[in-house]
Amino acid sequence: MPPPPDAPPLLLTNATVLDPSPRPAACDTVAVAGGRIVAVGDRAAAASSLPSDHRVVDLGGATLVPGFIDAHLHPLPMCFFEHQLDLSTCSSIDEVLSLLSDRAATEPADGWVVGLRVDDEALRERRLPTRVELDAVANGRAVVLMRRDGHHAIGSSRALAAAGFDATTPDPPGGVIHHAPDGTLSGLCGEAAAQMLLATVPLPEWDAFEAALDRVVAAWLRHGITGISAMCQTSAEGPAGAAGALEHAAWAGLLDRVPLDVQTILIATNAATMRDLRQGPMHRPDAGRRLDAVKLFLDGTLGGRTACLHRPYADGDGGHDDHGMLTLPTERAYAQLVDAHTAGFQVCIHAIGDRANRTAAELYARLLTEHPGPHRHRVEHASVLDDETIDLLGALDVTAVVQPISLDSESAWLAKRLGDERIDRVYPFRALLDAGVTVAGSSDAPIESSDALAAMDCAVDRRGTGLHHALTPVEALALYTQGAARARQVEDSTGTIDDGHRADLVVLSRDPRDGFAGVDVLATYTGGQLRYQAPAQATGAPTGDP
Ligand SMILES: [Zn+2]
Prior knowledge:
The chain has 18 helices and 23 strands. The chain is of the alpha/beta class. The strands form 4 sheets. An 8-stranded parallel sheet has the order 7-14-15-16-17-18-19-20. Strand 15, helix 9 (271-277) and strand 16 (289-297) form a beta-alpha-beta unit. The structure holds zinc ion. Zinc ion is lined by residues 72, 74, 231, 444.
């Protein structure tokens, strides 16, 4: 959305102005006109840059920071999740089954029951429900559960049949259809097979999608998010499988409802698709919409043991997938890299395991040797990294787009899964910064919450995984402002509080330099417009704005 030229000039004053980059003292005021920051400094000097009829907003000593940027999320799946049963808080299989049974009772006999974010690590039984258990509660209805990581799904017999799976179906390329010890389908499907199962779920109506997106946007603004990088499928390839094949068309139709700065990252195998779609609404740079990056997947997830590792999982079963797997042959990945890079697009490689990340770094090294030139390529997740990979990312200037909030959901089992010696290699934000890598914050929502302050707290606190990779609060803030702006190629216009930048600003209840506990978002501005204000009586929110 463009900064509205008619937005009234604003003087945001009596604030601690906190930017990730150091700023001279005596700075308590930001002047905004035409949707942009026009002055930063003391009140008198900043006011002199505005016409005399400007409005003054007294922030009452609150802290003003750049708007938060989420450099990797999935908006359409976020909307889809809004309609389904959330199983993330369940602590036992019985609880999961009872919620499913309640939901099934409200559905017609041929209806579907969909449960999301089921987490076997959080269930007492430490396993996922089975096909037989789903059949027992659904009375013949189709049931599909998505595992928390989004890369695994479990189906009832009816749902598996709808996907065309029976006990003799071979594993699809890049996927696994799991079997019970007696040879029947267990119900669990991994990676490409999970996408095929999820693709059988009927989609909500269009107006339901619009209403869901409005709720998603409200949550972003409540969390202080003013810019996003939106992952978007163009074919059956991607986390939503065939159901996501029209995601690009849906996203193009929904974009007008999003008053944020939006980079769209296409999950596409060729630059030609990108060039076609840049003619449409996803690419209007003057209006804060850019379509300038493509994403490809090299591996799976740690949660599902499909992230590709150098050495086997510490808690694996010794089977064929003990190291996880590369989900794309490296030569095919390289051909896609060359295609996107030589067309001038940014490339974003999904890599979670240390072997997948090394492969990504080596692919980039080869690319930039054979096709040297400026680039802004990225690795998405960069979860487990060996030292050589970190050095290579730094030397090649490849950005790491990370999700510190995963420490909240994964810290209980990371050491068990990776072993004590490898736990030091997980989410190594400190080592990345020390190697000169640009590190950008993101949520991967709906896999994780888009609560950016909670994510910054995880980057500082590390949730019991050891503090040697801990960041300072200002470094954590930089992940979600300056770092994410650079990852999205817009550091000249967002990410810091500077003259000429979009007036994307967040008012915090207190200075986070002592830590993020108890810090709340009081107000969010995008393009100089107040888009969210916390209830005044509860929070002491700033006054003076309509
Ligand atoms: Zn993602």
